[in-house]
Batch of 2 targets.
Target 1
Amino acid sequence: MVSINEDAYDVIVVGSGGGLVGAYVAAARGLRTLVIEKTDRVGGTMAYSGAGVWFPGCAPLRRAGLGDDVDDARAYLRDIVADPSREALQDAYLAAGVGLIDELEKNPWFQSFVHGLVPDYFTSAPGASPTGHTIFPLPLELAELKENAGLVRRSLPTERWGFDEGPVVSGGRALAGRALAAFLETGNGTLRLNTALENLIVEDGRVVGIEAVSEGERVRIGATRGVILAAGGFEHDRELREKHQSPLTGEWSNGVEANTGDALRAGVAVGAATDLLDEAWFVAGLVQPDGRPVFHTGTRGGIWVNGAGERFVNESRPYDQVGHEILRRHNSTGVSHIPAHWIFDQRLMDRDSFGGPPDEPVRPEWLESGALKKADTLEELARLIGVPFDALSRTVEEFNGYARSGVDERFHRGESVWDQMFHHIVPFAADPRQNFPAKPETEWPNPLLLPIDTAPYYVATILPADIGTKGGLKTDEHARVLRPDGQPIPGLYASGNTAAAMSGRVYPGAGTPIGSSIAFAYLAVLDIAGATD
């Protein structure tokens, strides 16, 4: 039996990550807006993130004295994406970022965003900014959300390992909490948890609502003005991952487990075109004691080697580029790069520790589980991971020469503005105490190039993980979902990882995924509101 919700909404937003910001924008305009969320908490994969938002030219950047360099950012996107078919999307994104932040900051819940110093990822490209275009929301005391505090998704370390986050949350959790409060406070917003999209309802060629399963009951809910699909990607759908991204299956993804491509499938079922289904926001993943990888932001020491015992990449390169490189080499060279092996020694352990502050270099479970292996000699380490010792020895000897000179002649680690950020911090994304200050380096000319020569030796495992897929439904500059002939499907919009990325196959800078989610949800609302206003 199919029950029918008698009260149609103006707008239905599917997903409560970045789409929740779009839902606020709609509700603030007086549109009766429903957000459906597949799980029992809001925030999606955004809640796992630092909530950086890549918005060139926006007010927080101007307040930080960085000026209005939208034209430089446009040139940067044109150069690195190199795809004329996405230029209209890029222009729309850049304009939306400025307007959206101006609008959000008028609401006390959003307060003021602040600039964070994260260089653009392609630092040598025309228009790249060494200070970056990334802004962050302010932390939030959960108590401010009152009875809704428990609705915000917990962080990944909390969900995986039960770490206590305390009463103040930051990053994606803060942005989700602020958006939830602002949305509900409008009086025009309704949230429906444990409600999974199944199908879109189409009448006379127009999307007019959704069919979903809510708390085990099938429901049909109308949307008189539009449906915005903002439900993340298909990172945990094994069938789609194997079809489009073999050898990946989704088990290494750091996206929310519920992201299985429901919105993508629903859009395709009503005639939507797709693009970039072979792509994701790839990252290097450091395998944890529980056997699963976690997004690893950067490597400050040691080397990564492939199955032949050979180094193959600048290990401090921006994470999306490293993730792509692991996959490219694995699929094209005939040499296994999955897994890759992160090799370092006691010298690095003494300087930086492994995942914690210096007084707790490594937690016991790392060695007990085998996620981190230890050997008295390099030869023993080679046997542990099954790589040729002769090749590994040559690789380490070559690298030690670079350490002495301070110049990585093969992969240029430490030369870019991005790399040099790690002179000052020790990144370790799996631990809530991450990014603690680095010890000053005085003995070696390049802090990112320490010799590997002090027993014992260690090895950890690196896998190609992701923070979500980035291929999906094709959209135009108004976030309208398109058919294969380029015509929009009336009443249907998409944003974030449900849509094919405006940035194509590259990752311009920190906060592009969340930026894309909230910018295109905002553009969808502007189109919906303008259609009849």
Target 2
Amino acid sequence: MTWSHSAYINEARGAVHTGDGTQVNLYLQALSASLREQARQRPRTVAKDDRERLYQRFVPPGRFQRARQVLHTHHTVLLSGRPGSGLRAAALMLLHELPEAEGSFHELPDTADDDSSSPFDNGEINGGDRLLLDLSGADETRYLEIQNQFSDFREQLIGKGAHLTVVLPHHLGYLLRSDLRPLTADIERPSARRVLTVHLRHDGIVPSAAELDTPELTAYLARAPLRDVADLADRIRRNRDSVGTEEGFPRWLGDALDMVTDQTARVAGDLSTRHTGTRRALLLALAMFHDTAPATVFSAGTALLEVLRHPPDERPRLEHSDFKAELKEIGAETQPSGRVRFSEIGYDRAVRDHFWTYLPDLRLQLCDWIGKHLEGMVLSQKERDQVIARFSEQGLRTGRPEDLLSLATRWTGQNVPQRLMPDAARVLVNGLGHDRYGRFFRQQIYDWSKNAELSQGLKRVLVLVCTDVMAQTHPDQAMVRLHHLARRERGPVGAVAQRSLLAMARTDNRLYRLLLSRLNTGMTGSHGEADTTLFLAMADATRVTKSGSVRAALVSGWTGILRQWPWERWQADADRWLTACEDDRYRDPALDVLVTACAGDSSRLGGLYRVARGWARARTDHTSVRTDITAGLLQKINSAQGFEPLGVSA
């Protein structure tokens, strides 16, 4: 790659706008389905189906029985151990083994949201709840704060028959309070070979002992975190499915290990013999745009040289080597499919690791290169996703999550093409899924959700990410962020956020109660109008019988509505509430909520009754039923005021 810089468009494979309206909806609808599928495959979710799948493949670690005993005795267990030992999986399985109860199975928040930095302030504990708190990424301040609040929370746990597992931060072990040590179980890493064989067996692969006793596999299993061992099993399965069963386990394993084998020493040696900047730029361009067309790699290498301000080669074009020869010089070849790859499996990853590790002064420029180049480059969405995944992996591996945030904000700016929104969403999703930096991204999304100055593009992406990804793994936190976006936006983005928020809360009785509680608090604050609108949309008479806490939250909300707003503001919603009373199952408890919300105030009671009379007189096929409901309401109103009328007429 010794020719001068140039750029050209080879072909168009992106979407073409051929009609009225905006195209962003098409991009985001397709991305939404993809993100939901990706979220279902992530190991961090606590959904029952995912827990069942993990349970089938779970290998109990050392001292797991001790953890069971602590949990059963104290309703709480704190799990400690080295990173990569499967602590989170153990925490999930300890809770999963408990008998099913009426309570919910959910993860407590691990970020500082709103006015509270405590995960224990997110509503009351219900009987039989099974709770997970992952503090593996906590900092010193937060870890100490949570320990200080722990005793009171444990008393509530025991009183409600609920259980809690906590994953402790290994790097802060010296800060654990002495009074909490009896609740601690030190988990020992299970046999990595056993983990691998169990995963393989569930995929119908049963290798012999000799096939597992290779030096390469033994060395890998000795150092790999358990999540990487599970990934290796999945790679072996995919190799079997792609190359066929006739190749046999040694081939499937060999190809899988080649993908994860550390080749950084070889890359360092190769780079030392390739002194020209253009040759090194081509190496990195191919490593980032691996398995794409030659023109794509050429364009990426040219763009990298421009970003790095590398001086161009002024020789005439025909004095340069052709691109095929340049690729051969760096150990690459063009496949029958027309795509370019390194000849050695795993070499592309080693090149990326080397550049990000040993040229740290170039990281900002590499971020700029990817940002600029993907803005103008025509690639399939799959190819774009692969490039973004490779960049994300390196940024997170080298402790630079802010580089991912930089791309997300860049690709959602005011004048940026809407087709880049899926790229921005992918960057954030990659960050959210990272074991170490997931909390960092959840906190950043929270901070963004409260910022009214964000671009519309970024707000759209945040709604999508919260709805389709965070809601699967951290629903409480997703709900908080959607609430802030819904209450601050009045345009299309706000409408989408509201629909997503309401749909999410309605699917789970616990989330429904939590959102009602937030709205009750918010109706008296600076976002009172927005939270009032949300409450009226949420107020569902059929939910009154779900639990006492839901009923109390509905009473509190209606009390605020009736106290602050004239009847015209809430008439339509009261009509909807009364219509639900046509079902006998909800009539008495729903009417009780409305009357209780009036708190004996004759003015409010009178206004409520006038609205009910108007509703009863509306043309309908249920006139007699409505008359009975209105009469029942009047009777409850009279009882609330301490007297019974001689006669009742609707």
